[in-house]
TrEMBL record:
Cross-referenced Pfam families: TPR_10
Domain of life, source organism: Bacteria
Keyword annotations from UniProtKB, A to Z: Signal, TPR repeat
Name this polypeptide is given: Tetratricopeptide repeat protein
Length: 436
């Protein structure tokens, strides 16, 4: 390339980055969240859905005690405990449901495909994907509702990084009039980096659900579309759809968490974000809430509050057996903590064993990077993560690994993409990205 062309290319890249930064700065100053929109959802009130589930559990428990041979009662109870877990985040509910399902499965000698799928769903929630796969394979052999089994097989193969198998399964279940197919097609498009197509498909699924007026599915689609809009930088749309979710389900902690993230990441409103998270902590005290509080306090340069939040996170993990569910969080934390990097290495290798995806290999590469073993980090990244994922955090890690190995160039720079992903990554990444 001659000097003039090189200069022109560099100027184009520089202007693109400056414009992106200026655009982001401008958007950042736009107020999107308004407390009057959601403050009613921060009032401690009775969760009628949860109260109904609790009443139903009492009812079916009594029925089952009176007739312990009625496995339908046990299956009903397992479903209720799973629903209760979704609302409260209490891991014991998930384990109770698992125990009941395994009991049913043993008594029926593994001959019921529906129970096999229910066990698989439970294991997916626990991040026990290889075990979930085995139960789905058994369900498929049994034959009942094979299409339902194929849909879940797609989900598990995506989690395991078996993308060619997942792609084939998507073809096998293709039906553009089927909501379940559309949301999986959206997931696939997002995986391959076609976010715009993913959103279009999700919007078609939304129209389908709104026509059927299924409240549960509307809640699900609105909250997931809010996520997609956020990833695409459509923050106003994201906020609107979190509010639509809350209008249907006033106790939807996922939507409130999404609004807290907008307040923090887009508006840099630490006080507002922490207020929302403190409410969620009362209703749905799962460990990752404390990690988000730690992240916000880090941005606010409140080291004491950050450490308190991290202490709460580890206390929750110690108090409850979450199994494999927080491996990724722990690996990232330990990788960046002097003295704990060997722990990160062990967890990363375990995650690769459990689910050999780009995300898992990124944990290993990132740990090596933080240990100063740059060549090992690059060897892992080159084989398993570079150009293998569109996740902003993985792209960011890849850029730092390339830089440490003197392999970051104009051609492989993703700085512009990362600038556009600051909302998704969070404001703590902004300065690091700009210094790439």
């Amino acid at each position: 390339m001659n000097t003039y062309k090189l200069y022109t290319s560099l100027m184009v890249l520089f202007l693109a980055i400056v414009l992106s930064c200026n655009s982001y700065q401008k958007n950042k100053n736009n107020k999107i969240t308004h407390k009057e929109d959601y403050e009613n959802y921060l009032q401690i009130n009775t969760n009628k859905v949860l109260s109904k589930i609790e009443d139903d559990i009492d009812f079916w428990t009594k029925k089952y005690k009176d007739a312990p041979n009625q496995l339908t009662y046990l299956i009903k109870l397992s479903g209720l405990y799973s629903q209760q877990f979704d609302i409260t985040g209490n891991i014991d509910d998930l384990y109770t449901a698992e125990k009941m399902l395994l009991d049913c499965n043993n008594r029926l000698k593994g001959t019921n495909a529906s129970i096999q799928r229910s066990i698989a769903k439970n294991y997916i929630s626990q991040h026990r994907f290889k075990e979930a796969l085995k139960h789905l394979q058994q369900a498929f052999v049994l034959g009942e509702n094979k299409k339902g089994t194929l849909k879940m097989l797609f989900d598990v193969h995506m989690e395991l990084g078996n993308y060619e198998k997942a792609k084939k399964l998507l073809t096998d279940i293709q039906d553009f009039k089927d909501f379940d197919y559309l949301i999986r097609l959206a997931k696939w498009n997002d995986h391959i980096g076609n976010l715009e197509d993913a959103i279009n498909v999700m919007e078609k699924a939304m129209v389908m659900v709104e026509e059927s007026n299924n409240k549960y599915l509307k809640t699900w689609i609105y909250s997931n579309l809010a996520d997609f809009y956020g990833h695409a930088g459509r923050i106003n749309d994201s906020y609107e759809y979190y509010l639509k979710t809350l209008a249907l389900d006033a106790n939807n902690m996922y939507a409130l968490k999404g609004i807290a993230w907008i307040a923090f990441s887009h508006e840099r409103n630490v006080e507002e974000a922490l207020e929302i998270l403190s409410y969620i902590e009362l209703k749905h005290p799962v460990p990752d809430i404390y990690l988000l509080k730690a992240e916000i306090n880090e941005y606010a340069e409140n080291q004491q509050a950050k450490q308190q939040a991290l202490n709460s996170y580890f206390r929750e993990l110690e108090k409850n057996n979450y199994g494999e569910m927080y491996n990724s969080y722990n690996a990232l934390l330990f990788a960046e903590t002097p003295g704990d990097m060997r722990k990160a290495l062990q967890i990363a290798k375990r995650e690769i064993e459990n689910r050999p995806t780009a995300n898992s290999y990124d944990l290993l590469a990132w740990t090596y990077y933080n240990m100063g073993e740059f060549e090992d980090a690059y060897a892992i990244a080159k084989k398993y993560t570079l150009n293998k994922s569109h996740e902003p955090l993985i792209v960011y890690h890849n850029q730092l690994i390339l830089k440490a190995n003197n392999k970051l160039s104009q051609e492989n720079s993703k700085k512009r993409d990362l600038v556009e992903s600051i909302f998704e990554l969070g404001p703590n990444f902004e300065n690091q990205i700009k210094s790439l």
